Amino acid sequence: MPLANKLALLKEMLDSAESNIRSARQLIVEFTGGSSDAKAQYTKKASTLKPTEGGQIIEGVFDGQNMIGPDGKSYPVPANYASKSKLIPGDVLKLTISDDGSFIYKQIGPVERKRIVGTLVYEDGQYKVLANSKAYKVLLASITYYRAEVGDSVTLIVPSLEESDWGAIDNVLPK
Predict the structure, then answer these.
(1) At a CB cut-off of 8 Å and minimum separation 6, what does 10 contact?
(2) Are residues 142 and 154 both part of a single domain?
(3) Global pTM?
């Protein structure tokens, strides 16, 4: 067998092994009801942020749906804001709680991003994008905003330096 064929076969075997490992990790996440590793990672990152006096301004880390504060508390981020701002896990947010009790979020520290292309699917009651042999969860607000449909090819934004269960839809590619 020529060397080029052996290298191609070896690459194919490695790609298959990587795909199997990603699938196995995804199954573990699904069986355990979410990635506790990711939550712990975001809580640790959020704990390094300084709480402000009086508690009117809180900085935290976005986990895909909520902001995790330095105290480990979860604060709900409106899905339309997260979708419009294309927030991804690891982004640092500032929450201002106004005197009338309203919450105002602002992204103050985006993480390094990369774009990948995948296919929109709906499984287990959740929209996901299949890309790079992984299923990334996406917010329903993004699906409705872009009028995306199952089977559409989408550009997804994910953290470039860390693993994530969530991504943000950047665009729906024309058919």
Answers:
(1) none
(2) yes
(3) 0.70
